[in-house]
Amino acid sequence: KSRVAILISGAGSNMAAIIEAAKAADYPAEIAVVISNNPDAPGLALARAAGIEALAIDHRPFGKERHAHELAIDAALRLRGVEVVVLAGYMRILTAHLVRAWEGRMLNIHPSLLPKYPGLDTHARAIAAGDAEAGCTVHLVTEGVDEGPVLGQARVPVEAEDTAETLAARVRTVEHRLYPETLATFILQRKTAPV
Ligand code: GAR
């Protein structure tokens, strides 16, 4: 099984979905560690309750030294023999240093049908645009924010009465299916890919 780390900042519902999927004997990943930049992230307690090591590596003591914060994360990943990094609601933009260090081995989930709506407030923007469909995208992380190669997408309808919150909740339900599935497919293809 590939050793996977999950990086979070908040609720950790996608993390929880991946942890749940990884309980299956034939799932190709084991969750080696969960790391949050936010010590108060509810996802940390969820991970610990599932028996997974969960670390807070707070960005605030590092101030403007973003690279130093990322070096602390990188050291924690390497110490645990992590092979693939999964961003799941990790709400800090990574510097080129960490992105390059994990290029091709770092995935993110974004709550829109990329290339539509990179960045924040994706659901409000989809509603304001009158879109009939919304969704989420799992992609490889590259230096351009929300720009990396797409690995998978899932779609939901936008309903007439939707608010950003109701649409976010509908998208999240499909995120919880898409992310574990796409991660598994990615790992299996990586293992069989010619080197
Ligand atoms: C998810 O909807 C994810 O797509 C989004 O944050 C939420 C995290 O929820 N990610 C981004 O907006 C990344 N820019 P979770 O903590 O419950 O998984």
TrEMBL record:
Residues the UniProt record annotates as site (Raises pKa of active site His): D146
Pathway recorded for this protein: Purine metabolism; IMP biosynthesis via de novo pathway; N(2)-formyl-N(1)-(5-phospho-D-ribosyl)glycinamide from N(1)-(5-phospho-D-ribosyl)glycinamide (10-formyl THF route): step 1/1
Enzyme Commission number(s) from the entry: 2.1.2.2
Purpose of the protein: Catalyzes the transfer of a formyl group from 10-formyltetrahydrofolate to 5-phospho-ribosyl-glycinamide (GAR), producing 5-phospho-ribosyl-N-formylglycinamide (FGAR) and tetrahydrofolate.
Catalysis: reaction(s): N(1)-(5-phospho-beta-D-ribosyl)glycinamide + (6R)-10-formyltetrahydrofolate = N(2)-formyl-N(1)-(5-phospho-beta-D-ribosyl)glycinamide + (6S)-5,6,7,8-tetrahydrofolate + H(+)
Domain Formyl transferase N-terminal: 3-183
Stated family: Belongs to the GART family.
Name this polypeptide is given: Phosphoribosylglycinamide formyltransferase
Positions contributing to (6R)-10-formyltetrahydrofolate binding: R66, M91, R92, I93, L94, N108
SUPFAM superfamilies: Formyltransferase
PANTHER family named among the record's database cross-references: PHOSPHORIBOSYLGLYCINAMIDE FORMYLTRANSFERASE
GO MF, any single term: phosphoribosylglycinamide formyltransferase activity
Matching InterPro entries: Formyl_transf_N, Formyl_transf_N_sf, GART, GART_AS
Example of a GO biological process term: 'de novo' IMP biosynthetic process
Catalytic residues in the record: H110 (proton donor)
Cellular component terms (Gene Ontology): cytosol
